[in-house]
Design brief:
Distance between the termini: 45 Å
Helix content: 25-40%
Strand order of the largest sheet: 2-11-14-13-12-15
Low-confidence stretches: none
Strand content: 35-45%
Number of helices: 4
Radius of gyration: 44 Å
Mean pLDDT: 83
Length: 367
């Protein structure tokens, strides 16, 4: 009995040893390598470039006051439509003390000259009625009195403008009423009641009361790299996509390429502008980020292979053409001449015919 037990144990040990040997042998064998097989096809190949930028109105106007003062009232807010000449806000004038003092002094002087002119006119009128002076002398006194009245009125108007920024005779043309200079949409009203504002001058651009734009005339503004700017031209079609409106594409037309580059992160880029066609049913807001796709080159009916099948060796390109697949895949390394590439497919000008099969990505499988 003991003899049979020893034999059984020996057999088990031998089987374990053989199994271990077979397992290690299988693990040590090289895996058979197979490749994805791709086909050379005839396609219309387009090479494009994408410029990043934003959507802006073509005409965006900053409305500024013609006088300095404090915002008394604001009649409009961002998002409202406004017509040319429509009042957006009202400014209350805070007179400068030196200017105010000069205007008051002018009124006092005009009043004194006016009283003297009226007295002279009364005296001259009595003399004229008594025929003691000529009509010419009387007319001179009358003219002097009229001039004094005009000067007094002008001085009072000037004082009223300094104090209030407006006169009773010109209320409809008041510079205290800030009006829109164009028809459009109010994009921003950065001031509030009580804010101080100043008019533009040599040393200051002035305070912006509101920003108004014609949102019916939008453009794409972006940048193109110097390596691609030479292959685009004004007038070519552009496809615009917006990050805020997924799944929608808008037609545009390139209308401007900057003649001068700007440096951006070490790269020379050129500004471009394209006019966008927007359906009436779609609302686009100023400042939307956007991408503009432009066609650089088109090759109709080109023999193409996926770019992953192309091997680059210096200035030379190769593909591996399938010659046999049984019992294992066999390939022939063949030199080709490539043309346009769109990043996915590459044009093959020479060395490969449509329908031929080439090696693609490697796929490892155990035999």
């Amino acid at each position: 009995m003991k003899k049979w037990i020893k034999i059984a144990v020996t057999v088990v040990v031998v089987l374990i040893f053989i199994g271990t040997f077979v397992f290690l042998y299988q693990k040590s064998r090289p895996k058979a390598v197979t490749y994805q097989i791709l086909k050379a096809e005839v396609k219309d190949l387009r090479q494009t470039t994408v410029a990043t930028g934003r959507i802006e109105p073509r005409d965006e106007v900053e409305i500024k006051p013609q006088i300095s003062g404090i915002i008394a009232e604001v009649y409009k807010e961002a998002g409202q439509e406004v017509k040319q000449g429509e009042v957006i806000a009202k400014v209350k004038v805070i007179p400068e003390l030196g200017t105010l003092n000069s205007a008051e002094s002018r009124v006092r002087l005009a009043e004194m000259n006016g009283r003297q002119a009226e007295t002279d006119l009364e005296r001259m009128e009595k003399l004229y009625k008594s025929k003691l002076v000529s009509s010419e002398e009387y007319e001179k006194s009358l003219l002097a009195a009229q001039q004094a009245r005009e000067e007094l009125q002008a001085a009072k108007d000037n004082l009223e403008i300094v104090k209030e920024g407006i006169t009773k005779n010109s209320a409809s043309f008041s510079s205290t009423l800030i009006r829109s200079t164009i028809d459009g949409l109010i994009l921003d009203v950065p001031v509030k009641v009580g804010n101080s504002v100043i008019m533009s001058n040599t040393f200051n651009d002035g305070t912006t009361i509101a920003t108004v734009a014609d949102m019916g005339d939008l453009i794409f503004r972006g940048n193109v790299d110097e390596t691609e700017v030479g292959r685009i031209r004004e007038g070519i079609p552009v496809k615009i996509t917006l990050g805020a409106l997924q799944g929608m594409t808008f037609d545009a037309k390139l209308e401007y390429i900057s003649p001068k580059s700007t440096e951006n992160n070490g790269a020379n880029q050129f500004e471009i502008k394209a006019a966008i066609t927007v359906p009436d049913s779609v609302t686009i807001r100023s400042g939307y980020s956007a991408n503009a796709e432009m066609e650089l080159q088109r090759v109709p009916h080109a023999v193409t292979v996926p770019e992953v099948a192309v091997e680059f060796s210096g200035d030379t390109t190769f593909v591996y053409v399938l010659t046999d697949s049984v019992p294992a895949q066999r390939f022939e390394r063949r030199r080709i001449v490539t043309g346009v590439s769109n990043g996915i497919d590459t044009e093959v000008k020479e060395g490969l015919k449509a329908g031929e099969l080439v090696r693609g990505l490697k796929n490892e499988q155990a035999s």
